[in-house]
Amino acid sequence: MSTCPHCGAELTPGAAFCGSCGQSQATPPPPAPEAEATQVRPAQPQGFDPAAGVTAQAPQQPQQPAQQWQQPPAAGWQAPPAPAAPQQQWGQPAPAQQAPQGQWGQQAPQAQQGQQWAPPGQQFAAPGFGGPNKPSFDFSKILMGNWIGMATVVGAALGVALLVNLIIAFTTAEDLKVGSAIAMTLLLTGATFGPNIIFDLGNDDFDQTASLGQYPLLATVLALGVAIFLFRRVTARYPDVRTALIDAVRGGVLMMLSLLVLAIVLRIWSPELKGYASESDGMSAGPAGLGLQDGEAHLSIAGAIFLGFLLLTVVLALTCFVRGDWLDGVWAKIHAWVAAPLVGIAAVAVATTAAGLIYLIAIIAGNDDARGFNDVMALVAVLPALGVRMLALGVFANVGYDSDGDDELSQGKSLDRLGDFADDNGVLFWIAPLIAIAIAVAGVYAVIWKSLDRTKVLRNVAVYVGLLLVVVPFLVRFANAHLNFKVEVEDETYKASLWLGVSGFGTTGLFFLLSLIVAAILLVVTGNLDVNAVKAKAQQAAQQAQAQMQQNQQQWGQQGQQPPAQQWQQPGQQPPAQQWGQQPPQQAPGQWGQQQPGQQQWAPPPAPPQQPGQQQWAPPPPPQQQPGQWGQPDPGDQQWGQPGQGGQPPQQH
């Protein structure tokens, strides 16, 4: 019987492989190595493919059987088919062993014929590319994402702003200059998203600058509306809201970069505006329309960096929470609370813009100074702001201007409510209260209509009314115009500021109260608020409070008396001294010296007044009394607290 030349085991007749070591018998055994030779494993086997994570076939090296890395084969192990070519002998895996992971971030395929792997702990791995305990961050993810889609959103918003402001700039000039009109178009395009326009009004004798913070609000509303529409289309197939929120930030970054480039170009150019307002008349605002001024002008670089980014990012992020199919977990809870209220806020914004048309008609009919073509276009440029003014007049808030400065000439105000304003600008403004009620109805009704779950209507309306306290001040800020002056004459500097529009505090508070009243009426009319149920709950609450009060009176004996546990157990407060004649509460016989839960611990009555020179005892009460101790009467003992008996306490047992 033949034996295996590799391991010396007996061979089965006709077998192509050794049943003990698995070596093929079809090829001659490898020559024995020299006696003193030492095998050294190469740093990387020949034919190693980093992309596949496996070792390809390579010329076979002689190796002693005793230096193999393999585990002994399991019992009953069957040898695989004979390979077509000699195999590399770096080690053979056990029969059930799986191929290790690829070393370049890919998973190696399952062990195939003709492929061998290095033993555990000796895999080949390049530093920084998936090696053990070496985490790495892929910075390319920052540059990845839908930048093209968000560039489309930002480009469309800027395009709409540019088109609207081009019309405004060419139609509001009293003496049209094409160069000045183009420069004004670029300035208004930047101001659409927040940056102030800075006018240089100085001459050789003094330096004077005027910083105008006023949104051409019609362009702002239209540009943001287009941005929201395109953003919803771009993110329509996104799997979750997180990706959309990241895209909202990308849009804000692109808007910031666009405005920054525009501000730098205008700063370098510093165009000189002509034909909008003469130096003697000062800034032209018509009857509180868009403020325009002649002179050199540029955009605020700081405003271009921050305001454009914040405005677009916040608007697009709020848009993400209106859609609910991609929200889960905490995002779904947020959507359930704010989806319907946000629709109500959008309805208020749309209704306010429509109210601006009514204001425009009323001011043209009642004010002669507002009937010029350029004055009308200056009013159209801030049409949504006119709606906010109509809303403020409707809730009887102040409308006008207020200025403050270092000298008396720059200090003054002119604030009028509806009565005085209507006397100066026409009786048509008496329709303002009805307009304000209509705006409140539009907001509340939109919330009720959007609330698909009828059990959540009250909650959604309450959230909407609460959001008005946050949203209305922002609407007032967008609608008002802010102007800051700075004059430098030799070594002296004068500053003044002015705001033109409506009172923010009065408009917010009064419209909030109006919305509460309108919400209560609409909830009752639509059947979402049962008045009888509300009355029943109110009566039940009143009865419970009355019953609790009577119970307290019966428990403590008189109205207003507090339980002993609440009289002196405040931090740092000492218990009051006991007075003669005051008795502890009635308790079971033999128990008055013990403390009951929730009650004040009563000390024994003190001794009667002593004669001069006689010692007066005031022993402290022990923490816990036992029968027979001095704090509790014991038969046979003298009652030291009774009148006529000495002032000495009995000895403790």
How do the strands and helices of this protein lay out in sequence?
Layout: E1 48-49, E2 54-55, H1 140-143, H2 147-171, H3 178-191, E3 197-200, E4 207-213, H4 217-234, H5 241-269, E5 272-273, E6 295-299, H6 301-320, H7 330-366, H8 373-381, H9 383-394, E7 399-405, E8 412-416, H10 418-425, H11 432-450, H12 457-479, E9 481-489, E10 492-502, H13 504-525, H14 531-556
Report on this model:
- The protein has 653 residues and is an alpha+beta fold.
- Helices cover 41% and strands 8% of the residues.
- The protein contains 14 helices and ten strands.
- Strands 5-6-3-4-9-10-7-8 form an eight-stranded antiparallel sheet. Strands 1-2 form a two-stranded antiparallel ribbon.
- Strand 1 and strand 2 (54-55) form a beta hairpin.
- Helix 2 runs antiparallel to helix 4.
- The protein is flat and about 125 Å long.
- Mean pLDDT is 76; it is low at 35-72, 85-132, 565-570, 577-585, 587-602, 610-618 and 625-653.
